[in-house]
Amino acid sequence: MPTPYGYTTLLKTTLICCLLTAITFVFFPEFLTFTAITASTVILFTLYFLRDPERQTPSDQQVIVAPADGKIVLIKPLDHSFTGKGSVLVSIFMSPFNVHVNRIPLDGTVVHLRYIPGKFLMAFDNRSMESNEKMEIGIDNGSFRVFFSQVSGFLARRIVCPLRLNERVISGKRFGMIKFGSRIDMILPSSVKIMVQPGQKTTAGETVIALYQ
Length: 213
Hints:
20% of the residues lie in helices and 35% in strands. By secondary structure, it is of the alpha+beta class. The protein has two domains: 4-49; 63-211, Glucose Permease (Domain IIA).
């Protein structure tokens, strides 16, 4: 089933495709077959892009799971005002063919939310972390904090994030999406043990990004 976050996108795409097909039928009947096939392909791809499969989040309460499907493109140490010194950045790139529904990486409380407008560089370009449109999210689990950003890409121009400040969240639960090719940058505190490596594929809500005690 398509994600509810994408119903408006699916509706608009279907209406546009139907309108173009109708116009072709009336004014350019010789191109009707081509237009109908193209419109059907676009609608089917939109349905595929908006798919939202069920996931089995690990029952172990001391894990931080991937917030997105995709591939690890960067892991590096850095200091961060939200997570502290010696933190680790883990970046996940999502291609247009990945599931784009995002999931909460750990139980806790949302203590930071900030939308930042910006550019639309290619999401696999590491400069997009600083320059692109993004939604920053910070979760406090009572022992430490985790920070992550939904970052738009060249095609992604719509970040969906219905979270609210002081909302209690549960690991593996859906919390939004980024429409068409994008990335999520996670910043984890020094106290956790990173369990992934660059080039590794991730599954939102299932892949263990880090362990903590």
